Amino acid sequence: MVRKAPESDKKNPIKTRKHAGVSNKRQALRARQSGKNDKSAESLSRKQLVCTWLRYALMLLFAVALLSGFYYLFIQPYAYRWKIGKGHKAYGVCLPEGYQVHGIDISHHQGNVNWEELKTARNSLYPIYFVFMKASEGGDFNDESFKRNFAQARRYGFVRGAYHFYNPRTDASRQADFFIRNVKLEPGDLPPVLDIETKGSNVAKMRRDLKIWLDKVERHYKVKPILYASYKFKMDYLNDSVFNSYPYWIAHYYVDSVKYQGNWKFWQHTDVGTLPGIDEHVDLNVFNGTYEELKQMTIP
User: Fold this and answer.
1) Closest C-alpha among 154, 241, 236, 160 to residue 193
2) Catalytic residue among 105, 137, 209, 283, which?
3) Which residue from 1, 95, 165, 256 has the fewest beta carbons nearer than 10 Å?
């Protein structure tokens, strides 16, 4: 059966062909646009994927940097607290190996010390024999706990000592006079201590001023003062024949042994000791010698 053409096709063949041509062009245009859209979508998808991976990579780098910073600031400097040391565990830390005479240093930061409880440390496996106490700072600051602690230390049988925290911005002679007025050392006490931790703006002036303090205090007490400084501070600013002539108390934390090659008398090896009668952490020290040698260092 033969299909007849629609009347409209019969009547307008040209129009029909034109319409078909336009339709074909539109379809081709749509196809091209569709292809472009597909390519654009694919390109956008790739860009989004790159951005996503880049964002994750940056987040990972940030996390690594954050964890690394946390480790180096808060973990690595104190790793010695948790590692197994060569010595024996006592007072919350690993004590340095090979030292028999242990001691502490305290100030108002330790709060109200219960000396009745603290004296039990004298009879422990690692007896605490000596106690240094902060007496003064600069030219006008008295440590509020000094007088009581100084009297109690003698009462409970500890070898006692007093130290001055030096301020490089204050006149050295004034600081020496202030310490002398506030500290009455007696026979059996350790020599006075100069604690120097900051250099100020002029190293040469600091050195001259330290000598003024040391000389004036030595003339008054008739004994050579002890010089307290960290290992790095000593090596950087005070490592010469002038300051090497003073008994040296080295502050050097979280190491198994003292790196300083010169002579030293005391070593402050940690600031996180725990002792009976003291609520806060306390600095622990060892004396580089026997108990008899420690007594020989005291004021006659």
Assistant:
1) 160
2) 105
3) 1
Determine which one of 38, 140, 144, 197 is catalytic: 197
84-297 topology per CATH? TIM Barrel (3.20.20)
Structure tokens at 287: 């004396």
| 280 classed as catalytic | no
Q: Are 167 and 228 in contact (CB under 8 A)?
A: no
Determine whether 105 is an active site residue. yes
Instruction: Determine which helix (DSSP H) or strand (DSSP E) holds 58, and give its type and residue range.
Output: helix 13-70
pTM attached to this predicted model: 0.74
Domain ranges within the chain, ordered by starting residue: 1-82, 84-297
> Is the per-residue pLDDT at 67 higher than 90?
no
- pLDDT tens digits, one per residue of 77-128: 555 444 445 668 999 999 999 999 999 999 999 999 999 999 999 999 999 9
Are 269 and 286 in contact by the 8 Å Cβ rule? The answer is yes
**In contact, 268 and 105? CB cutoff 8 Å:** yes
Cα separation, 272 vs 81, in Å, equals 8
